[in-house]
């Protein structure tokens, strides 16, 4: 580890924390329907959308109607994307695309992009035409992120409202997310990316002749920057290219990389501020932000430490063991020179702690403990800070559990923000927390006990098991990154993957909305002597422990036979 | 079944598809092509005759003694296959990783004679994209004597050229110092 490496990591964290409040204030104004910076331009467009779809802003929904709208809208999105991928060879601007995707691959990809997972069983540049990349994938990058934000807003209304069944209007929340937040930010970010060296053209490829061999090379191109911008802002992560954000056209320089890291985390972190502001107590939001940072930072440190220590097998060959300014040391397999070990480790922990899943280095080639940091961050349920919307509503469920357990221990009625936490809330919370590990572990077990699953493994020893565990942890948390050596483009992985991505997205959204509906119906209890303060350092530590114990313990046995054994083997070399 | 929700879903889906899938990329393409015409078309590097001999940010394979070599690449088919970005995805304990690294080390030693400086990690390992345009300054410096011999230049001339092509960290802080192999090799050709 180097001092400058830590400075790079620190700089990112300082910048993102500084952005939380200004971005949060803007978002809070947008979602309260207040006037903001962009409303003179965007309000007419917003009104036009509502007229077109016959939506009235005042017409609010209860949790069932909200949930139905989410489901129908997203299923329509899956069908729309599936059809595009199946007929892409017939569509315009798809020059050079020889064939449609196979049914199982198209289904997996459609579910993947609609659920904000962006798991890719295919190689972007050689499989998809420009039409599929833009009208197909870019659109779902926007809509899946906006869906997450909408569900979070409905959930927050469960706390802010009393004795009502109404949680807001899904179409209004969706439209505002896209028009005021995701689209303007994407426009700015994509132009910055082009300025720094990303491509943005309607040509499907660029030709050049190499200097030494005079060989003609053709590199796929297209409207890359516009897709990369929303891919990161929307915590989507599905790359235009197979190499994802390691590809120089997606992420040309360390500066563009800093922008992408900020882009994929600033909204999830800022949502804690909106939460605080909407419930009328910003300290509650800051407390949750601190919990997220306490959960994230040690894993960033673990990944960086493990990657800079490097791979002893290669270090025995010839290379220096300490990093000098001129010579990178540590584990450079699957990493780019311009980013180096520190930035790559930081990016990896950010992408797995949000639902992004974009990569600038190959997680499969990480040291065992570096890869485990990525695995654990997903397996905690991606709550630090998590995907857009989904991260914070996941974390708030952990808060309810923490409040409930603390209440039981001291014999007080558990309450949070003036809402009594009762058996129904706890049933929903238990459901929300248990579904993910149950699905991930049972599908991993199924995969490693069938030929269909085993045939995807490409690395020997315990790492082969880690590849499968990583695949289902990633899809089961709507992350999308991979130990990418796994050959997952087979009917087994495509269908099992589509199932777990769909279930872990919508099977969680529905109980979340039901929980919100139940909370909104309740009266507000005044703060009394028996109220547990939820902004104290004690509660912050308590919540961190609850997330770690409830989240990580489920996976400890699986981690023991994957990365942990691999680490012990490597230490013995 | 509530048909109103279905109808609203379709209306929103199609209008957002037009706005974010068509208008947005077209708008960005239009602006980018006007404001950043060079970058948005791949940052091409051209000869005096106007022929495109590479893209600044896309690495190329160099194997002869007279050029600086890029990092190993694991792209499908052949190294630095621009049409299929990707890396090895070998795990740390995968025997193929050690075999490949030993091979790269031997190639470097064969090419360079005895290497007095130790070999930096980036020359033993392949990148994530397989198209890494950069090598570390140390990786360039260990190749100086070979290139100088092959071109009949003094080592000092070549070493100075390397030093003048070291790109610092962005803002002296972000990322790592690096040398763009294509630009360094073009400068070599310009030298002799």
Automatic annotation (TrEMBL), chain A:
Its main location: membrane. GO terms for cellular component: plasma membrane. The chain crosses the membrane at residues 6-28, 70-91, 130-156, 177-199, 258-279, 286-305, 387-408, 429-448, 495-519, 539-565. It is a multi-pass membrane protein. InterPro entries: KdpA (IPR004623). It is found in: Cell membrane. One of its GO terms (molecular function) is potassium ion binding. Keywords: Cell membrane, Ion transport, Membrane, Potassium, Potassium transport, Transmembrane, Transmembrane helix, Transport. The system is composed of three essential subunits: KdpA, KdpB and KdpC. Part of the high-affinity ATP-driven potassium transport (or Kdp) system, which catalyzes the hydrolysis of ATP coupled with the electrogenic transport of potassium into the cytoplasm. This subunit binds the extracellular potassium ions and delivers the ions to the membrane domain of KdpB through an intramembrane tunnel. Belongs to the KdpA family. NCBIfam families: kdpA. This is Potassium-transporting ATPase potassium-binding subunit. It comes from Leptolinea tardivitalis.
From TrEMBL, chain B:
GO terms for cellular component: plasma membrane. Keywords: ATP-binding, Cell membrane, Ion transport, Membrane, Nucleotide-binding, Potassium, Potassium transport, Transmembrane, Transmembrane helix, Transport. It is found in: Cell membrane. Belongs to the KdpC family. NCBIfam families: kdpC (TIGR00681), PRK00315.1 (NF001454). PANTHER family: POTASSIUM-TRANSPORTING ATPASE C CHAIN, POTASSIUM-TRANSPORTING ATPASE KDPC SUBUNIT. This is Potassium-transporting ATPase KdpC subunit.
